[in-house]
């Protein structure tokens, strides 16, 4: 079939088909073993696909996706060829999802297949005939396998097939060119520019009618500041590539904002200075739709703050966290695993009912929300584990799998923002504030940490030592306790935080470490003898005096620095308690270096200001900004009684 055979491309009779444009094709295996293929996909095919899809959507053309994915978790439904070839993408796997850059809209057709041929293992022919489509534009991977079969089978079924040669690829250039030459008799082969020109020439009248204003998707470049509030600027998603290398503008004084949205006037920058929010291409979170179909897709990218010359900015917690992670790796050969657990209050605006703590009824009260939340987190590859009803009235908790520290901190931010977004869509009130009223059960953030070396040895566990806590684990924990009263100013950073850090609150009130003890700030967590994971893999420590008014990146950075100082100083623990530290006598506490945590934020800030061993590891300007901004926050809230304080922060966080 030659170009002359298809003289026009009538858009009302044409569908666009993307073949196997899925995450499995850009995983680390392909990146390392097929670098040319990976580069072709990421640098040539995906940008061309985006152009074609954008034009197609603007003309209301049908966009159809097909990906390799089993209908079952064990792959028993796969074709014989896929079984013999060991091609297996499990049901609901991340690898089976369409690559984010060209992801489907909610109403696009997405067909899962378990063979090479989309016409063989899906009902695409039936669908195309129902849609009255006679022309089929095909692009995807691999040119000489699944794309080849779609083209030949489509032609045999009577469709006018068009292959976009610079939106298809395979493992080598030679294979790609051989495939194009082999199936050119079954289709018209065009490049992206030729296709767009042909569509525009063929449909001038329809294109003119489509030139009306429509809502466009936005992507927000974000940073989470020193007070744990995520801020940023939105750009057109269609023009995102323009911002990936240079970012967007930012203002230094934004880091001096209090939670009350008042800039601390004593900050070092005033109205001067310029920065850039530089997107991290590996830290984009997209969710195509939610319960409110009128909402635009959720789309944000975590950014580093850099100076206009590209250098890292001293007050960017995310940059500093990356630096500390590298320090652990370079000096100690330590890889860190981290997960954040978030408690929050979720209330139906028109429903005053509450159900028993931890109950199935309480879970079901928010079953729509929990379903949307878990599916959204799963889609965004945040790897959720549990959604649970908590002890407090209308209180819930979300947990996710551990990851490296930077990913974990980004996930913590993403989880908060996804929960807020879903709550807004479903007309719910949500708050991560430590207390939403003076007599309510408190919300916390629990940080779980484990460490291993490059040989895969887990470093906190030692079967021969008390409570199985290794020497390194003891040193690290002791470092945390040595600086805990200072750390509270960062991990429990608002006046309302200290209504939570009291005895008998199941949070923490003293500088202590406990074995399976939820009333100590560091808890040695339980392990399960019948797990498929070994005990050393399960073994982890939990940091508890943290809440949802803190910055995940700054908090984790501070904790890692304090723990690292304990390792470097070879610090030792005096006591691991199985009891509530409040039940110990004052003499017992003093003998074992167990001291009360700060009673209020002002006291915590004084501890932080005096802790020069800890502060010397932070940029001076960051600490100056943080302390000054927090004292400004205190001046704005010191007249509030406890209930007013709780209500005030519950609206902010």
From TrEMBL:
GO terms for biological process: glutamine biosynthetic process. The keyword Cytoplasm does not apply. Pfam families: Gln-synt_C, Gln-synt_N_2, Isochorismatase. InterPro entries: Gln_synt_N (IPR008147), Gln_synt_N_sf (IPR036651), Gln_synth/guanido_kin_cat_dom (IPR014746), Gln_synth_cat_dom (IPR008146), Isochorismatase-like_dom (IPR000868), Isochorismatase-like_sf (IPR036380). SMART domains: Gln-synt_C. The keyword Flavoprotein does not apply. GO terms for molecular function: ATP binding; glutamine synthetase activity. Residues 317-653 form the GS catalytic domain. Keywords: ATP-binding, Ligase, Nucleotide-binding. It comes from the Eukaryota. Belongs to the isochorismatase family. This is GS catalytic domain-containing protein. It comes from Adineta steineri.
